[in-house]
Amino acid sequence: MHQRDGIRGPVRLILAASVVVALATQLAACSDDSTPSGTASKAASAASKAASAVSEAATRAGDAVASATAEAGRRFDEFKGGVDAKSEVKTAGAASPDSDGRATVKVTATNPTSSAKSYVVQVDFRDQSGNLLDTTVVTVDDVAGGGSKDATARSNRSLTGDVKTDVARAARH
User: Fold this and answer.
1) Which residues contact 164 (CB under 8 A, 6 or more apart)?
2) 149: three-class secondary structure by DSSP
3) How far apart are CA 40 and CA 26, in angstroms?
């Protein structure tokens, strides 16, 4: 998944607000008798509003990840009697956008036992720096003994930029 300049939405907002704040600070510091009255305070007010908007956007993004992480925990709590199976599950690596802009990735569970098992898998979606963008849980039901089965993990929201995936945890029963 690519985005122009490689900068995600919240990061772009933070950078824009930083520029506005810096310019407003410079304008206020350079105010003299030739500056129209109130120009510096108007710029500072605009900078403050921009910073508030950036903070709010970052909070919303953080809330979305926290909510998805809590949901993943709940799904694992429902999966009773499971054993750690992280080494038995792989993702295809990089995610691809679907028609809604959500990141998707193929998940493959390989069952080393002799009987059919089901898997619950938490897939994390991360940016190139390793920052968590989203997390989701996918189930892979009835994987034949000694066999493999695929499923698709889909992010909870639209993600932009180069998105990597990894199996955060997996259990089978």
Assistant:
1) 93, 94, 95, 125, 126, 127, 128
2) strand
3) 9
Kindly compute the dihedral angle of the four CA atoms of residues 98, 101, 106, 109, in this order, to the nearest 10 degrees.
-120
Q: Which residue has the tokens 């990735």?
A: 105
Indicate yes or no: pTM above 0.70: no
**90 closest CA partner among 36, 144, 151:** 151
Q: What phi and psi, each to the nearest 5 degrees, are found at residue 69? A: -65, -40
The dihedral sign for the CA sequence 96, 99, 102, 107:
negative
| Cα–Cα dist 122/71, whole Å | 10
37-79: per-residue pLDDT in tens?
554 554 445 444 444 444 444 455 556 666 666 666 776 677 6
> 82-172, what's its fold?
Immunoglobulin-like (2.60.40)
The CA distance from 61 to 149, in Å, is 33
Distance CA 82, CA 157 (A): 28
- Whether the Cβ atoms of residue 146 and residue 114 lie closer than 8 Å to each other: yes
How distant is the alpha carbon of residue 28 from its chain centre? 37
Q: Could you give the count of Cα atoms lying within 13 Å of 155 in the half-sphere of its Cβ?
A: 28
